[in-house]
Amino acid sequence: MRGAFLKGLAVAALCLAAAAPGRAAGFGIFEQGTKAMGMGGAFTAQADDLSAMFHNAGGLAFVEKADWMGGITWFQGTEAEFQGAAPFPGPGARAEQELLSQPLLHLYYGRPVSAGSRWTWGLGVTNPFGLITEWKDPDQFAGRFLSTKAALRVFDFNPTLGWRVSDNFGVGFGAVARLSDVELRRNVPAINPFIQRVSDVGRLQLESDPSEGYGWNFGLLHKYNNSFSWGLSYRSKVDVDYEGEARITQVLTGTPLDPIIAARLPFGRDLPVATEIQFPDMASLGLAFALSPNIVLETDVNWTGWSSFEEVPITFTDGDLPNATIPEHWEDVYNYRAGLRWTISSSSQLRLGYIFDESPQPEEAISPLLPDADRNDFTIGWGHTGKHTWDLALMYVKFDERERDESFPEDGNDFFGTYNTEAVLVAFTLNW
Amino acid sequence: MHRPSLKAAVSALLLLLSGAASAAAQPNTGTANFSRYVALGDSLTAGYMSNSLVRDVQLNSFPALIWRQALGTATGFEQPLVSQPGIPPLLTLRGLLPTVITPKSNTPGNPLNLNLPRPYNNLGVVGADAQDVVATVTGGFHDLVLRGQGTQLQQALALRPTFATVWVGNNDVLGAVLAGRVIDDVTLTTAARFEPAFRQIVTSLNAAGAKMAIGNIPDVASIPFVTTIPPVVVDPRTNLPVRIGGNLVPLVGVTPGQDFVLLSAAGLLGQGIGIPAALGGRGTPLPDEVVLSAAEVATIRARTAALNGIIQAAASQAGAAVMDLNTEFTEITQRGVTIGGVTYTTAFLTGGFFSYDGVHPTPFGYAFIANLFIDAINRQFGGEIPPVDLFPFMFGPEASAGFVPSTAASAQLSPLALDMLFWSLNVPKLAPAKGGEPTPPAPRVKPRPRGKGKGGGG
User: Fold this and answer.
1) Do A196 and B389 touch (CB under 8 A)?
2) By the CB < 8 Å criterion, does A144 face chain B?
3) Domains of chain B, CATH where assigned
């Protein structure tokens, strides 16, 4: 029953939310609330809106009345280019990704268990991971035998309990039900024996059904005094086992190779396939200082256990095609956040932020499937409190130029070159 | 009057700028100097492919590619080029099931660069072994390359080389493979005979001031000439082994699990030789020259190891870069090499690394080998010579140099039709067998012509 219910939710949620592009380094998405985003996500030691359920569950303990909060973060890619290098695909290879223009949703509800209670509860719906890498002119793209499209969609349902241990110390615990699906596309090569050139002989598309995984989160927030607070947050690993179908369609070469290939590959059938992703755990430590009655500075350090993303196994459960493994070899990384908020008046707040976001992807693992890089992000935000409380934020994401010119000996699969990526995020959240 | 002058001035300026740009673009070769680069070796150095020496492939021989990458230009590297369809005419794939490979034409190509008034930079002679490099001037391909003006080594020294690649020794073991027989110093060079010749090559070049990159000898079991034909009867129409009572049927005169059936057996199998009489064959065993026994393979491998030891020692003494092609080829044989999602293997026809003769690489294979050498050179001499761009060798016209899609008309031209059995289509999944027991191939072919000179073009 639980599985069916979650799958139903998944279908609805995934219909609502387009696949989310990778934002925080790797394919994590840290932008789950506009107020926090305006301060570069340095929010663990403040966590003073309902996005605390994502940023630090300890903040939920301080909720004093029933509240809804919902919003949208719009991701707009502005540059996503690849320039090849020798030995493959060579300097003549240039490619662009489809520039993404995608909304990410966040929705929270929270309230005290009862009037005056030290216990609170809430439900958060977020999409903390996601990815789309889709290359233009896929049949011409030099990396088409590695990937022409990769899309990962994730929705978290995060019921959370908060407990205000004392007036200035709160803890929170949550359960995470993660719903996700994945899509991978690539072309299938063969070396044409008549001309000894690589020919496209098929297109492979793999789509999973919505699949679920479970985890938990924990957080604590200590408002030491009016000038200093600190917080700690942890979100656990979540394993998702995907099942779905693959389909391979033939591409004709116009040579006698075609009937031989047709006899040997299972074209035009749904092929049962399975894969799995171990989503990483994350921990955050934040320190917030009141520089004046109106100005607060917070600095956070976040750790993400990306070493869980070692490989992506592709298993054809009926043996229709050989199983495959996509090596990733990612590493645990930190990112560093600083955010400033300036309360200009009782109704207006200006926010600024900066993030240095380490990439978990080693150079040897960069590929068209998911090219990642260190990032420098700059944010600005505005908050309005009144009859309607709303927040607005803008983020500029500058990926460092990322070059690959070596491979892991055990993996090979050279695909050398340089990736350049930029993006802008705009977010709006309304409280009611 | 003024305009031409202005144009001339602009042209001169552009020329100057382009010269400056190309000078600036010249790669860093470290302590290696490629201004007078010479390549010594055999068919693998010459750029031989599909039983032929032909310009389209020679232009991308591995020494030509090293020159191009090291100097940023193709100009100045002279080779004994041969016009289409090559000498001998290139082999062409006419059909897959059954596999039909024939020469492209009955008439060979012509030398294009015979009058060069100096030795070629690429002195690789098809069929040459170590002794030939120091002692042979005429005969077979020596006449084309050396033109009676001295041995490979003598002509290399005459160029006052600053850099040399030496990939010598392949024919010292390959002769035994191609002949299917091990006869010391006839088909398989002994270490005692190999060492003085090889040391003479290396010490002479070293004394002349040339820095060197030296390749060792790959394992013979890595080439499709040895690995393609299984020791059991296969139906060429289905690419599947024939089974009787569920059991595989060994070829006559072959011990499965121990013997290697050489590609040169294909024509004989097509005539029913080696096929049991019960399956419609002649029931006569395959002759020894098309079968390598386990003992012969062991002997060849041991000799290869011994010769590679000599190569390594001589190279170390000379401070040369050593390219361990034995390990590299073994790796490719066992795992293939995957580039950009495309896996190249040593499988015959479909692996992409070896050409239709089962011994010599494709243009991609030569480009890959050039990159192995460049990597070794950079490591040894501290250079940053860029690798060869493999994309054209995988997708572009360079990949297909010398490969011509067959036509029925051209197929009828050849009196040397050669059917070969096709076992190794390298696609992920083989369909399960359907229908009744396959039948053996119908005899319809003439045997494969043996190559000229020793070893048929190693």
Assistant:
1) no
2) yes
3) 6-227+299-424 (3.40.50.1110), 234-291 (no CATH)
